Amino acid sequence: METKKPPVFLDLRLIKMPAAALASIGHRASGVFIALLVPFMLYLLELSLSSQEGFNQATLLMESSGAKILLMLVLWASFHHLFAGIRFLFADIHIGVNREQGRLTALVVIATAPVAAIIVGLLL
């Protein structure tokens, strides 16, 4: 009679993920984040286009510190999603698919998305 081994519970915080996995997970997470923000962005657009008073309210709302943090997160998500999507399109046509090139392009995506978000955020 064979004894059953107890289940192994993995601590995901201790597992070192490769850069390509982080870029892929970030691409999915940024897509979900952007999709969840669509109603809020549409509300802001509708509010700003409704009247001068609505535009003033939308401007006041976007000047709060919470909205600025949210804007930086949206910028990061947008840039990460764009850069990772371009990376995946190149992979679809078999460019950058070997292990070292995949790691390098993933690191480029992970590094450039926050830099681009900060640059654009400072320009706004």
Explained architecture:
- With 124 residues, this protein is an all-alpha fold.
- The protein has a single domain, classed as 3 helical TM bundles of succinate and fumarate reductases, CATH 1.20.1300.
- 77% of the residues lie in helices and 0% in strands.
- The protein has 4 helices and no strands.
- It has helices at residues 19-50, 52-62, 65-92, 99-123.
- The longest helix is centred in the first third of the chain and has 32 residues, at 19-50.
- The protein is extended and about 75 Å long.
- The termini are far apart.
- The mean pLDDT is 92.
List keywords for this structure.
extended, mainly alpha, 3 helical TM bundles of succinate and fumarate reductases, 124 residues, 4 helices, single chain
Report a brief summary of the structure.
The chain is 77% helix and 0% strand.
